[in-house]
């Protein structure tokens, strides 16, 4: 082979080589970008567990789970997460009592009854409902809803879990209704037609055929809605008060896990102090609660997608 | 006789069922309207309370101890700068991740793990991102309680939304387009960059705008990383020092390159935090300020969402495969 021929061959080969290498590098960069999701999860768990570990070196896990008071900012310190969990559960419970019936009915109406033009009009409006910043919802709860409730219940304190829960329910409605509607619309038309052919009305079809067929998707919507409510911060921090209290009465004020984290963050706590570590222990509790709900919701949602 | 009796009974039955049907349809519509009307009412009340405060001075004053002199200058400047960092970080990263998952990823356990993580991250409460940023960005990477920390935190928060919308947009691009590009000898990346991505760009932009509008309203994570509530200065600008940075001083191109990135490390506040601060004061005068700030905040998110809805409408109508 002469020198020219060799040169010619390498000149032919090199563009392909360059091209292949470039393609590989691009794929690697894209992979790294996608892997950042995994890195974020790992980082969240690392930070939470690391700081909580330091916290649990000082406070025993049994105290954390069984003590009935949460007063890390006072002289007499108690670390019973249960009084924050109770606030979280009560506000979320109120919110779900509003959002589940209303969200389900709205979804059923949109999926089975509404003419398609009306649906195209209503859906963006509901999306806007979800787009309003939560701090604005908090303002509504504290300054509009609480005074209104006080007219009916004169003893209601200025901060209470009821109004925070009600407004939070309003906020979650679009979330629940959009997932439930997706689930209902993915029920095959054949099932509906079968039901109509037997002489059922739209209502009967919706309740007895579509609802049961979409039940896994709908329960996924409920569970993901619950997870939203548990993690919601600003509404409860503004309207439900910042006083940790072990109570199941929505008419009282009580802090949630998220409200406590906000309260501590607004102060000026030294890094490495036990007070600073409490927010990570509280955060870890919150993550574990939402994680369980999210995993349940994920598998339920996956099931309905697999069926249809 | 027997048959006509039965017929009557059947007719009343049918009537009853149709009545129930009609009633339920009414209830459904009413439920949705009630939710929308309550919200509209609350928003109007907010608007009415806040409107008297909305003047030019409100936008160009710093917060103050005196409620009638307080404004949102540092808040909206802070929000804009934080959003700039968020967009610059989340958009390329999210789109790249979306492209990988949709176009490159093989069906194996690595892809599964990434996918599970994206879904999971979308469900993590926003305040947890604040804790992550406090532990990681503020204390580990020493980025400080600054605009860059807030921007990166919110970028992580909206990353799952950007990834999911990118994937959906790319999935909607028909395969024939890819095959045509391959048939002409294009490489995978050329196909994606020159053909698939431009086709999906409209939907991707819609998703990005929706994600950013969510980031604008996020309060909790920004509080957690230690944004201040009382800021009476603006970050150092690479342009003229004094607000509104005009007229430009010095020589072309009027940019002080030494200070080009100085604002990244500056202390800051954002709109929702300013509003939260005013809401939590007992003085009702400050609550009027909160209403005004809330009005501005709602206007921002509504404009962004309106833009997104319009864009979606535009692209859905324009593209017919």
UniProtKB/TrEMBL annotation, chain A:
Signal peptide: none annotated. The keyword Membrane applies. It is a multi-pass membrane protein. Its main location: membrane. One of its GO terms (cellular component) is plasma membrane. The chain crosses the membrane at residues 25-49, 79-107, 128-149, 161-184, 205-224, 279-301. Belongs to the binding-protein-dependent transport system permease family. CysTW subfamily. This is Phosphate transport system permease protein. It comes from Gomphosphaeria aponina SAG 52.96 = DSM 107014.
From TrEMBL, chain B:
Its main location: membrane. GO terms for molecular function: phosphate transmembrane transporter activity. Coiled coil: none annotated. It comes from the Bacteria. Pfam families: BPD_transp_1. Residues 76-308 form the ABC transmembrane type-1 domain. The lineage of its organism: Bacteria, Bacillati, Cyanobacteriota, Cyanophyceae, Oscillatoriophycideae. Keywords: Cell membrane, Membrane, Transmembrane, Transmembrane helix, Transport. One of its GO terms (cellular component) is plasma membrane. The chain crosses the membrane at residues 21-48, 73-101, 121-141, 147-170, 260-279, 291-315. It is a multi-pass membrane protein. Signal peptide: none annotated. Belongs to the binding-protein-dependent transport system permease family. CysTW subfamily. This is Phosphate transport system permease protein PstA. It is found in: Cell membrane.
């Amino acid at each position: 082979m002469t020198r020219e021929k060799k040169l010619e061959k390498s000149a032919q080969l090199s563009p392909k080589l360059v091209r292949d290498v470039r393609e590989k590098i691009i794929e690697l960069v894209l992979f790294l970008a996608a892997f950042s999701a995994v890195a974020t999860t790992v980082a969240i768990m690392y930070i939470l567990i690391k700081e909580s570990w330091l916290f649990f070196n000082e406070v025993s896990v049994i105290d954390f789970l069984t003590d009935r008071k949460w007063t890390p900012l006072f002289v007499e310190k108690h670390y019973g997460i249960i009084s924050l969990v109770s606030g979280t559960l009560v506000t979320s419970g109120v919110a779900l009592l509003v959002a589940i019936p209303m969200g389900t009915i709205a979804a059923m109406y949109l999926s089975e009854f509404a003419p398609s033009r009306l649906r195209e009009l209503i859906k963006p409006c509901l999306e806007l409902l979800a787009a309003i910043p939560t701090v604005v919802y908090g303002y509504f709860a504290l300054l509009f809803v609480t005074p209104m409730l006080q007219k009916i219940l004169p003893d209601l304190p200025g901060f209470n879990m009821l109004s925070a829960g009600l407004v939070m329910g309003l906020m979650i409605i679009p979330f629940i209704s959009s997932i439930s509607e997706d689930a209902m619309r993915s029920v095959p038309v054949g099932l509906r037609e079968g039901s109509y052919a037997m002489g059922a009305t739209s209502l009967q079809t919706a309740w007895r055929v579509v609802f049961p067929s979409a039940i896994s998707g709908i329960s996924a919507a409920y569970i993901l809605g619950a997870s939203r409510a548990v993690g919601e911060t600003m509404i409860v921090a503004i309207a439900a008060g910042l006083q940790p209290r072990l109570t199941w009465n929505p008419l009282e004020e009580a802090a949630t896990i998220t409200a406590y984290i906000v309260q501590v963050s607004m102060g000026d706590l030294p890094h490495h102090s036990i007070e600073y570590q409490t927010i990570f222990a509280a955060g870890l509790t919150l993550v574990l609660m939402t994680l369980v709900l999210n995993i349940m919701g994920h598998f339920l949602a996956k099931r309905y997608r697999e069926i249809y | 006789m027997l048959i006509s009796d039965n017929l009557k009974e059947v007719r009343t039955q049918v009537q009853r069922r149709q009545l129930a049907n009609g009633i339920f349809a009414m209830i459904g519509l009413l439920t949705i309207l009630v939710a929308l009307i309550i919200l509209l009412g609350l928003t109007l009340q907010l608007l009415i309370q806040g409107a008297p405060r909305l003047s030019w001075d409100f936008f160009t004053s710093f917060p103050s101890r005196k409620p009638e002199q307080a404004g949102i200058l540092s808040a909206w400047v802070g929000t804009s700068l934080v959003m700039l960092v968020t967009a610059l970080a989340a958009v390329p990263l999210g789109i790249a991740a979306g492209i990988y998952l949709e176009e490159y990823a093989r069906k194996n356990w690595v892809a599964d793990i990434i996918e599970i993580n994206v879904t999971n991250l979308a469900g993590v409460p926003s305040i947890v991102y604040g804790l992550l940023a406090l532990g990681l960005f503020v204390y580990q990477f020493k980025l400080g309680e600054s605009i860059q920390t807030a921007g990166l935190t919110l970028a992580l928060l909206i990353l799952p939304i950007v990834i999911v919308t990118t994937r959906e947009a790319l999935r909607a691009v028909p395969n024939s387009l890819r095959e045509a590009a391959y048939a002409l000898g294009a490489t995978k990346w050329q196909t994606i960059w020159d053909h698939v991505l431009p086709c999906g760009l409209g939907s991707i932009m819609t998703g990005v705008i929706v994600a950013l509008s969510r980031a604008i309203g996020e309060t909790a994570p920004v509080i957690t990383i230690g944004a201040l509530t009382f800021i009476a200065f603006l970050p150092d600008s690479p342009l003229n020092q004094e607000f509104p940075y005009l007229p430009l001083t010095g020589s072309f191109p009027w940019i002080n390159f030494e200070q080009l990135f100085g604002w990244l490390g500056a202390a800051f506040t954002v709109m929702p935090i300013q509003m939260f601060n005013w809401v939590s004061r007992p003085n009702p005068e400050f609550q009027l300020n909160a209403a005004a700030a809330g009005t501005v905040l709602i206007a921002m998110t509504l404009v962004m969402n309106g833009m997104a809805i319009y864009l979606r409408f535009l692209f859905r109508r324009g593209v017919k495969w």
